[in-house]
Amino acid sequence: YKKYMATLNIRNIGPIKDIHLELKRYNFFIGPQSSGKSTIAKIISNCLWMEKEIAVHPNKHNDMQYYESIFISQLENFHNMHGYFDNQSAFLSYESDYVKIVFENKSCRIQLGNRIKSYERTKILYIPAERNVLVFANNFNGDNNIDSFAFDWLNARDFYQRDSRFEILKLGLEYYQEQRNGKSISRIKSDEGDYDIQLTDASSGLQSVVPIATAVEFYTTVFYRTNIENKLLTAWQEKDRVEIKNFLTDELKKNETEKNKKAVNNRMERLLNTKRTSFVIEEPESNLYPTTQRDLLNFIIKSSCARHTKHKVTITTHSPYIINQLNLLLKAYDKGKKIDGAAIDFDELNVYAIQNGCIRDLKVQNEGVHLIDTDMLSDDINDTYDLYEQL
């Protein structure tokens, strides 16, 4: 597996003034509310989705105008970013081995990358901060990122029935779906059997963490078991895959050598079957106690290596506990150990603080020691103590 790398530039979009970064396998963004974390996350998610849509449709590679025409409207409608791109100076560029996307002067240009034929189908899973509402809602139309995640979560949660309950981190609780009167009801059960309640009656913390944890577990393990993906395909998705397969088959007929047959068959397998998931998660810490925040991060990182597959993770957060935990996971990796099954390679990690529309790299490498600089995350607490001493 080639280490993932792509470059992203954003200028004058929403609260973002000017940032440049190289995306890696793990990307963390921390900053106060309205600083631009979600703007970056939504743009990353949309670029990954556009990259996928282009790469898996070789039958449409001669019509980049279509993708260029929908790139901004997808950001505006799917991610609720209306008005972010009205500024004449708004600029965005994303470049990987597979595509180059540039938006400037209110116009979008897309070019194919030189390794477009090597792309492996990736599931892009955006988990919004507003996920709590999914616990109470029943109807989703898929027109925005909340509805889209709801659709994916419905697929995930239906796997966890009474006889296949999902253990929620270290909380001593299990999650499952109960079928009652033709309806599917989400429930939480204690390990000791003390209680068994509907998720809608559970705490706000559980309503926040259950959708994340079940989705991460499902789309790193269960989804990749034999034939599970095919069972979840919609009629439209099945039709789309048939069109891709037919196009590649027709292309093969033009030059049906043994070498070309092998190459086309390999490409067909990469494009028709999902190989990994790319998670973009907003504020995983919402409504969670600090120890649970750390347990959830450990779980996400551990799951990202499930079945020896290198899934990708991008996280926005307000929590210093999340960022501080990264230091423990970095040291564990350097020592050849794991924390609850999790560890992170320093070279596969980005950690940025968002400040005044720009980013500050928090990674530090000093005499072989890999660290995240967390000093700035303690400033508010230190200010409180300083004020306390002055009273």
List keywords for this structure.
alpha+beta; 10 helices; 17 strands; 36% helix; 6-stranded mixed sheet; 391 residues; 25% strand; single chain
Written overview of the protein:
Helix content is 36%, strand content 25%. By secondary structure, it is α+β, with helices and mostly antiparallel strands. The protein starts with 5 loop residues before the first strand and ends with a helix. 37% of the residues are buried. The mean pLDDT is 91.
> How much of the sequence is in beta strands?
15-25%
User: Radius of gyration, Cα only, in angstroms?
Assistant: 22 Å
Q: What low-confidence regions span 5 or more consecutive residues with pLDDT below 50? A: none
Helix content: 25-40%
| Adjacency order of strands in the biggest sheet | 7-12-13-3-14-15
Q: What is the number of E strands? A: 17
- How would you describe the shape? globular
Please outline what is shown here.
The chain is an alpha+beta fold and 391 residues long.
Ordered list of secondary-structure elements with their pairings:
Blueprint: E1 6-13, E2 16-23, E3 26-30, H1 37-55, H2 64-78, E4 91-95, E5 99-104, E6 107-112, E7 122-127, H3 145-157, E8 166-167, E9 173-180, E10 183-190, E11 196-198, H4 204-218, H5 228-232, H6 235-253, H7 258-272, E12 276-282, H8 290-303, E13 312-317, H9 320-334, E14 349-355, E15 358-361, E16 363-366, E17 369-372, H10 379-390
Parallel strand pairs: 3-13, 3-14, 7-12, 12-13
Antiparallel strand pairs: 1-2, 1-4, 4-5, 5-6, 8-9, 9-10, 10-11, 14-15, 16-17
Helix pairs in contact: 1-2, 3-4, 4-8, 6-7, 8-9
